[in-house]
Recover the amino acids of this structure.
């Protein structure tokens, strides 16, 4: 789907304007407190409050590249109308900055984006998650300038899914069927006639798939359950005989591995080990940035912590995965940004893992004289936003973080 870099209306390797956008990016996203945490072995203490930061957190390489590329695009095309297909990443502050730069966000109704306002001289930026084959082809047909920031790790998943479809395997994708990345990934099968996909959200859904493979469950029930998460005309009797498993890059790594294994075992139980060897593939396509952040938070959770603060968009898949890991071990608050910490009232607004909607918790830091708060942030959270949250943790106990030098 990607075109050679030489195509004058298609860019995916930057414009050589790194130096030009460096200072603006630094001003928009770096944070003093995060720099200080790094210098102090990821820990700051004052007035009985200790904040410990995971050693891998925040902006990943794919997000850094996508955001920088968007800034470069504005510099390269100062007089052109610039559109963005959806959100560059799932962070409201970054998206707001892009809006302030005059970039227009295109909306979708959960399906394809509405490109009706886009004209041939316009520039359209594709986000780090990528877009579907259909969206990509629509833009190419319009002849607009396309700036493609799709992350290399997402492209790797696409290659995997492409090879499954090419070899007649149904791509079973551990992910969220409505997530931009997974929609783009699933669309890769449409290159091949007979290409099929099925998106499964979690181990519960994987078990439904396994049951069907082993002859349990009804066809109607299965089709109804996965109506929105499967390729058109998905037939479980035909399409679960040869399977390749992949995953959205930001899922919980251990769950993805377990799902792959579970489906492989179901095929072996249903048809035998030789059949499994021939007709089943599984490949961990969690990206290294997601893996590193999950490993780092596991390491942090081995420290004595009273609570864990996880910062990132409520619709950020990798942030949700981090919160799930933390919630299994310690009191965890998933907040969108520092404004969720209401210092005056001592209240925190947050998401509970596995639930939707914000809740408020009072006295979230408790009354113990010494308190240790762990902190991590999703791959779309910039350092300045992490720093603001750190300052508010201290402020909740009446400590001015600017006194920490
Ligand atoms: S989370 Fe992973 S796949 Fe997504 S943009 Fe970051 S590095 Fe790329």
């Amino acid at each position: 789907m990607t075109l050679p870099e030489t195509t004058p209306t298609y860019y995916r390797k930057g414009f050589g304007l790194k130096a030009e956008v460096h200072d603006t990016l630094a001003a928009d996203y770096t944070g003093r407190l995060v720099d200080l945490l790094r210098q102090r072995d990821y820990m700051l203490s004052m007035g009985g409050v200790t904040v410990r930061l995971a050693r891998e957190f925040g902006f990943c390489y794919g997000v850094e590249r996508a955001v920088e590329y968007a800034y470069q695009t504005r510099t390269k095309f100062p007089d052109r109308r610039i559109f963005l297909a959806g959100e560059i990443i799932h962070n409201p502050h970054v998206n707001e900055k892009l809006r302030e730069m005059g970039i227009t966000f295109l909306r979708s109704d959960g399906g394809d984006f509405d490109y009706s306002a886009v004209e041939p001289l316009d520039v359209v930026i594709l986000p780090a998650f990528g877009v579907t084959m259909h969206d990509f082809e629509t833009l190419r047909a319009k002849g607009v300038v396309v700036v493609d920031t799709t992350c290399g790790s997402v492209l790797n998943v696409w290659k995997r899914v492409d090879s499954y479809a090419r070899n007649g395997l149904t791509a079973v994708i551990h992910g969220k069927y409505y997530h931009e990345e997974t929609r783009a990934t699933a669309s890769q099968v449409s290159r091949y006639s007979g290409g099929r996909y099925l998106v499964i959200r979690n181990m519960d859904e994987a078990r439904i798939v396994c049951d069907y493979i082993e002859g349990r469950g009804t066809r109607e029930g299965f089709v109804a359950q996965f109506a929105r998460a499967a390729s058109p005309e998905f037939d479980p009797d035909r399409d679960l005989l040869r399977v390749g498993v992949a995953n959205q890059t930001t899922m919980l790594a251990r769950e993805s591995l377990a799902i792959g294994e579970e489906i492989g075992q179901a095929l072996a139980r249903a048809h035998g080990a030789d059949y499994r060897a021939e007709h089943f593939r599984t490949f961990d396509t969690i990206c290294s940035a997601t893996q590193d952040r999950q490993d780092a938070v596991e390491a942090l959770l081995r420290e004595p912590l009273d609570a864990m603060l996880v910062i990132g968009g409520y619709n950020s898949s990798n942030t949700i995965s981090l919160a799930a890991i933390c919630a299994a071990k310690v009191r965890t608050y998933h907040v969108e940004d520092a404004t969720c910490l209401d210092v005056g009232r001592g209240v925190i607004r947050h998401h509970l893992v596995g639930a939707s909607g914000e809740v408020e918790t009072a006295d979230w830091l408790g009354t113990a004289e010494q308190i240790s708060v762990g902190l991590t942030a999703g791959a779309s959270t910039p350092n300045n936003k992490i720093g603001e949250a750190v300052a508010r943790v201290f402020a909740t106990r009446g400590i001015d973080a600017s006194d920490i030098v």
